[in-house]
Amino acid sequence: MPVLTEDEAFVRLARMVAMDEEPVLDDTDLLRLLDKHQRGTTWAATTAYVYGDRVLPTVRIGRRYACAIGGTSDTTEPDWPVTDFAQVTDGTVTWEEEGLDWTDGWDLEAAAHEAWLEKAAIAASSTRFSDGGLTIDRQQLIQHCERMAGRYAPVRVV
After folding, report:
1. Do the Cβ atoms of 17 and 118 come closer than 8 Å?
2. Which of 14, 49, 110, 145 has a CA-to-CA distance to 30 between 20 and 30 Å?
C-alpha cells in the first residue's frame, strides 16, 4: 500500500484546514503540525532511539514496531518478527511488534484538529477580519474555527 510523502501529506492538510483563508496558517505552521503528528519513521542504522519511538522496516512487511528499550540501532536492519508483540534486539535497542503498519505516516485528522484550534486562537487575538471586501465578525470566525476543529476531534470511548 503506498505511503504518503511529506509533500502529499502537507497538501492534504493544507486543504483540510483551508490554510490560505482567514485566519491564515503559513507553511511553517503546517510543517510543525505534521512533524508533531508523525506516527513513526523508517528504521535507520546506527540511530539513537528512545522508548516509545515507532518505526517501519525499510522494506515494508505490513507491521510496525515500537521501541521497548532505548538505545542505538545496529549497522544492519534486524529480521523483523511478524508475530503479535514479539520482540527483536537491534544493537542496543529492543523493538516490539505493535500491529499493522499505517497507510500513511501522519495522523492528519489530529493535525487538522489542532490547526483549526490554532486558527480559532488567532481569530480570538484579532478584532476583525476582511476577506475579499467581506468583513467577518471575530466571534463568528472563532465559532467557525471551533466547529471545524470538532470535525477532526478524536473520538473518545468511555
Report:
1. no
2. 49
Q: pTM, whole model, 2 decimals? A: 0.73
- Tell me the per-residue pLDDT of 40-86, one tens digit each, with 9 for 90 and over: 888 999 999 999 999 999 998 999 999 999 999 999 999 999 999 99
Distance CA 126, CA 150 (A): 22
Q: Which residues on adjacent β-strands are paired with residue 15? A: none
- 3-state secondary structure (DSSP) of residue 7: helix
Instruction: Assess contact for 96 and 87: CB atoms under 8 A.
Output: yes
Sign, CA torsion 143/144/149/152: positive
29-39 confidence digits (pLDDT tens): 999 999 999 98
Burial of 56 (0-12, 13-18, 19+ CB in 10 A): buried
d(CA 82, CA 85): 8
Checking DSSP bridges between strand 54-56 and strand 41-42, what pairing results, if any?
Answer: parallel
Instruction: Determine the straight-line distance between the first and last CA of the chain, rounded to whole angstroms.
Output: 32
- Strand-pairing partners, residue 138, are none
For 17, 21, 116, 135, 136, the CA distances from 132, given in Å and listed in that order, are 19, 11, 21, 8, 10
Question: Per the structure block, which three cell numbers stand in for 106?
Answer: 501522519
